[in-house]
Fold this protein.
Amino acid sequence: MKLRKAVFPAAGFGTRFLPVTKASPKEMLPLVDKPLIQYGVEEAVACGLREIILITGRGKSAIEDHFDYSLELDTILERRGHRDLLEEMRKISNMSICYTRQKEPLGLGHAILCARPLVHDEAFAVFLGDEVLDAPIPVMAQMLAVYERQGCSILAVQRVPREQVFRYGVIEGEPAGNGLYRVRDVVEKPQPEEAPSDLAIIGRYILTPPIFDILEQTPAGKNGEIQLTDAIRGLLRDQAVYALEFEGQRFDAGDKLGFLQANIVFALKRPDLGPELRQFLRTLRLG
Ligand code: UTP
């Protein structure tokens, strides 16, 4: 069956980005002129995933407002003749999005479990909105092509420097050709010496429905949170799971440095901003 649903967990506290995330959702930080979460939602829609499920929490209502219809803005843009902006705003508010709340941030695994009543019994995609991916073919489209062949859970992975593996879920995998790995094990935030590889799980997943039953049984793990990686380990006992080393560049925009890098790269690509920004960067005479 074709995948239809995309789940966006967005209920985390964004502590790495304090103080701005104290009262504003991390997902609403701007990447040039669009909030981070919109890039993920557009990627999902471009891949044919038309049912978007957003997991929010306290203090996240700006996300719902962003995707809502604003009659006042619509009227003003129409009156002022800003046709292009009007069309762009309507495209955003026409996206079909369901919301549910994670009442306590008990971890990514728990956030995904909150989507169960909306996902029901079908495979679904997961997007972490603060992982910004710049790819020739949308990363989820690369993963869907694998899912169509394998029909099982698929994880997006990328090589990271060994000393940074403690920030990620890391896979142990057997190469299966064309950047694909049959996953044998997954470990959440290992120390470099215990990491089974340098292939880190990056914020895109395709998951099969048994993950929900496993999540129900998964106790809190690293950092006292219910970890998705621990539930994927449970899935591996009964099912094949593949990991795809995708083509593209990834920015962790939930981290201050990654966010700045993503903004520079995305702005440099924009015809309306790139040339002047490039010129400005040259004047900085970076060493
Ligand atoms: P992160 O660990 O990157 O997000 O979780 P965080 O907890 O918001 O940020 P830091 O680490 O404190 O800076 C990955 C994704 O999972 C969501 C986050 O919103 C983010 O999109 N998440 C995390 C939840 O929805 N609920 C949680 O309980 C934890």
Summary: The chain has a mean pLDDT of 94.
